[in-house]
């Protein structure tokens, strides 16, 4: 009530100091009317203040909600970026695992780089996604590790290419060596065959081999009782590639009992690596032309009835045989 009275006094004083211009007659304010208008004015001002405060509060709430949503979205995006970075590091780690080389020094370097990737993954897992500075640092380290791996891939590819070329060269060399060995074997076989043919061709051969018996008058006989010597006759045929000079012709005579007839068991010769006893022999000057020879054999015990066989040899080979029947 006192407040209303004071307000009425102030209003009266205000009217005195500032008289209103009226178009007709003077109007006097009564106490109760003036107090009612002041109450209405005061209530409107309060409502205005409340409305303004409500709007401000709503705006603040909207701003806070926007900031909160924005922060949550940013945190979510940062976590996604962190997960993506982790996956890239794991992928890089797997790529390092696929690299292999036989070069020991390069293998040791690869091991060091793989350990760096593993350590970076561990550090990333322990770092909060909102730590932007650390995330940027890890991204730079990832780029560096990728560049290093590319250089290793280039080195390994170069080494593999070189190794492939070396293996191909080695394989080609082995093939060429095998071909050379085969050619050598073929040539040696051909040479051996030609040598064998030449050796065989150089052997002096005989023809017209015969075995006869003669009596003391040097006349042929077929009676054992009259035979004093057995004569082996033959011809060494022409052979211009054979060695020239003296050649020894050996005869081995076996009696009807199949026993070798020899006057001295010390009379031996070697033919084709085999040592044998001969019955008789003769040296011949052979100059590549055909030459006929006769070799005589005398038996102190005489000769008996039956078939006698003679085998003719040189130091190179057996050159023929002949038979004789004595009555």
Describe the protein's topology.
Blueprint: H1 2-17, H2 31-98, H3 104-126, H4 132-202, E1 206-214, E2 220-221, E3 229-236, E4 245-254, E5 260-261, E6 268-271, E7 274-277, E8 280-286, E9 291-298, E10 306-313, E11 318-326
Antiparallel strand pairs: 1-2, 1-3, 3-9, 4-5, 4-8, 4-10, 6-7, 10-11
Helix pairs in contact: 1-2, 2-3, 2-4, 3-4
Structural class: alpha+beta
When the domains are counted, the total is 2
Written as H for each helix and E for each strand, in order along the chain, the element string is HHHHEEEEEEEEEEE
Low-pLDDT regions: 1-7, 20-34
The major pleated sheet works out as: 5 strands, antiparallel
Give the CA-based shape: rod-shaped
Number of strands: 11
Separate helix tally: 4
Report the average pLDDT across residues: 81
Gap between N and C termini: 195 Å
Structure description:
The protein is α+β, with helices and mostly antiparallel strands. It folds into two domains: 31-163, no CATH class; 206-326, Immunoglobulin-like, CATH 2.60.40. The chain is 54% helix and 22% strand. The chain has four helices and eleven strands. It has helices spanning 2-17, 31-98, 104-126, 132-202, and strands spanning 206-214, 220-221, 229-236, 245-254, 260-261, 268-271, 274-277, 280-286, 291-298, 306-313, 318-326. The strands form three sheets. Strands 4, 5, 8, 10 and 11 form a five-stranded antiparallel beta sheet that branches. A four-stranded antiparallel beta sheet has the order 2-1-3-9, with no helix packed on it. A hairpin with a 5-residue loop joins strand 1 (206-214) and strand 2 (220-221). The protein starts with a helix and ends with a strand. Mean pLDDT is 81; it is low at 1-7 and 20-34.
């Amino acid at each position: 009530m006192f407040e209303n009275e004071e307000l009425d006094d102030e209003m009266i004083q205000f009217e005195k100091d500032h008289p209103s211009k009226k178009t007709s007659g003077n109007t006097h304010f009564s106490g109760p009317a003036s107090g009612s208008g002041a109450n209405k004015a005061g209530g409107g001002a309060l409502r205005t203040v409340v409305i303004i405060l409500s709007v401000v509060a709503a705006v603040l709430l909207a701003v806070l909600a926007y900031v909160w949503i924005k922060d949550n979205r940013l945190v979510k995006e940062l976590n996604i970026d962190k997960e993506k970075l982790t996956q890239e590091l794991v992928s890089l780690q797997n790529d390092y695992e696929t690299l292999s080389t036989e070069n020991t020094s390069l293998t040791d370097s690869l091991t060091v780089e793989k350990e760096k990737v593993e350590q970076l993954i561990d550090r990333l897992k322990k770092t909060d996604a909102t730590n932007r500075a650390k995330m940027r640092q890890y991204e730079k380290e990832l780029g560096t590790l990728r560049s290093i791996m590319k250089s290793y891939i280039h080195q390994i590819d170069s080494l593999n290419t070189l190794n492939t070329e070396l293996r191909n060269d080695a394989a080609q060399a082995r093939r060429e060596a095998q071909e050379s060995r085969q050619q050598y074997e073929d040539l040696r076989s051909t040479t051996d065959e030609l040598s064998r043919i030449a050796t065989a061709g150089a052997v002096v051969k005989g023809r017209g081999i015969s075995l006869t018996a003669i009596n003391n008058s040097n006349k042929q006989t077929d009676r054992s009782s009259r035979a004093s010597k057995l004569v082996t006759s033959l011809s060494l045929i022409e052979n211009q590639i054979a060695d020239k000079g003296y050649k020894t012709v050996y005869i081995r005579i076996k009696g009807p009992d199949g026993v070798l007839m020899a006057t001295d068991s010390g009379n031996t010769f070697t033919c084709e690596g085999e040592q044998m006893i001969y019955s008789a022999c003769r040296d011949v000057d052979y100059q590549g032309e055909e030459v006929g020879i006769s070799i005589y054999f005398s038996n102190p015990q005489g000769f008996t009835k039956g078939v006698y066989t003679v085998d003719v040899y040189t130091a190179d080979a057996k050159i023929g045989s002949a038979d004789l029947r004595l009555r």
